[in-house]
């Protein structure tokens, strides 16, 4: 799982993570080594080095959120009890139980229904009471991640991807400022994951326990549409079949409605709006942003590796061209006019990651 921007070969960090995960000799299996995360496994536990720019106060809050009883069965709780450790080089580390991930080679078994249920439960759970966390709830970091993807594309060698990068830039320029992380997002008291995709699901206990959400680095208060936006973007790009999209969205809507009927849902408007008959007025701007983010990362990787875009990356760039060509450029967090889902191409690439 090497990343082109990872420093790579950081054996001291790998050893420190193995020790943190429970092996005093510092021997473990490196599961991921990227610029934003390094993960090492020892037995049934993993240790993670968070991004170099992770801020300790906000990360401590996010890890405590994962341990909070309000999110039991939704967010995988840490093995470290909510504590972080300072690793060689200054990065923050945490430990987590090992789960069974989604099989990327078995699209038919992709747990879209379970994903919709988990996100709805996350969005409708009561927030932890004041004083139970070590600090204030941070904002959801989805827009910041989109902006980082654009910055990465701009830094990467263009190779033969100059035209694709220009298409991505045009689509980016038409997004609302909050989606570009240039101003605060819509006011919200909904807890969001901030970076949902199927790689953020594991079964725990292994191998057949219930699905739970992992990776809390972007968790925070924000627009819950962002958590539904990547599947929405894939659907609009022709990458996610309609049946899977409807399974995901239907499971989300039923769970939100069930929480409301049970009196468990908060008074937040947005989860209920997303569960309504037409969620696209709320999904449109975040789905455009996630389309641009995916395309930017694809262009950056292809340029750095000196290769052509693969089929899924081409589909995301083509979707960016449609975004840039929409007749009415959105200028708010709830755009009007023609919507992204109305520009969906015919059957093409299929996939779920």
Automatic annotation (TrEMBL):
Keyword Transferase attributed: yes
GO molecular function terms noted in the UniProt entry: transferase activity
Domain Aminoglycoside phosphotransferase residues, every copy: 77-235
Organism listed in the record: Streptomyces qinglanensis
Listed Pfam families: APH
Protein's recorded name: Phosphotransferase enzyme family protein
Region annotated Disordered, chain positions: 330-353
Taxonomic placement: Bacteria, Bacillati, Actinomycetota, Actinomycetes, Kitasatosporales
Record keywords, A-Z: Transferase
């Amino acid at each position: 799982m090497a990343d082109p921007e990872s420093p790579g070969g950081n054996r001291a960090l790998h050893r420190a993570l193995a020790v943190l995960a429970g092996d005093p000799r510092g021997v473990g299996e490196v599961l991921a080594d990227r610029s934003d995360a390094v993960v090492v496994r020892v037995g049934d536990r993993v240790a993670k080095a968070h991004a170099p720019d992770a801020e300790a106060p906000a990360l401590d809050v996010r890890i405590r959120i994962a341990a909070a009883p309000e999110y039991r069965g939704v967010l995988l709780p840490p093995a470290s009890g909510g504590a972080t450790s300072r690793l060689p080089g200054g990065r923050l580390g945490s430990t987590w139980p090992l789960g069974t991930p989604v099989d990327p080679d078995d699209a038919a078994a992709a747990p879209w229904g379970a994903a919709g249920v988990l996100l709805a439960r996350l969005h409708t759970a009561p927030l932890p009471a004041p004083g139970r966390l070590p600090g204030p709830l941070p904002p959801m970091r989805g827009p910041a991640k989109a902006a980082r993807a654009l910055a990465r594309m701009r830094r990467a060698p263009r190779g033969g991807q100059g035209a694709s990068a220009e298409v991505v830039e045009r689509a980016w320029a038409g997004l609302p400022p909050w989606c570009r992380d240039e101003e605060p997002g819509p006011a919200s008291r909904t807890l969001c994951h901030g970076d949902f995709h199927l790689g953020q699901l594991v079964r725990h206990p292994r191998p057949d326990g219930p699905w739970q959400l992992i990776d809390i680095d972007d968790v925070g208060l924000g627009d819950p549409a962002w958590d539904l936006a990547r599947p929405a973007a894939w659907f609009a790009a022709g990458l996610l079949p309609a049946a899977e999209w409807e399974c995901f969205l239907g499971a989300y809507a039923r769970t939100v409605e069930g929480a409301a009927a049970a009196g468990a849902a908060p008074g937040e408007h947005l989860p209920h709006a997303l569960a309504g008959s037409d969620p696209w007025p709320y999904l449109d701007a975040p789905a455009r942003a996630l389309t641009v983010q995916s395309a930017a990362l694809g262009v950056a990787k292809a340029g750095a590796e000196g290769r052509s875009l693969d089929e899924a990356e081409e589909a995301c760039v083509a979707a960016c061209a449609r975004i840039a060509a929409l007749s009415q450029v959105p200028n708010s967090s709830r755009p009007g006019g023609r919507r992204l889902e109305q520009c969906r191409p015919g059957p093409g690439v299929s996939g779920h990651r």
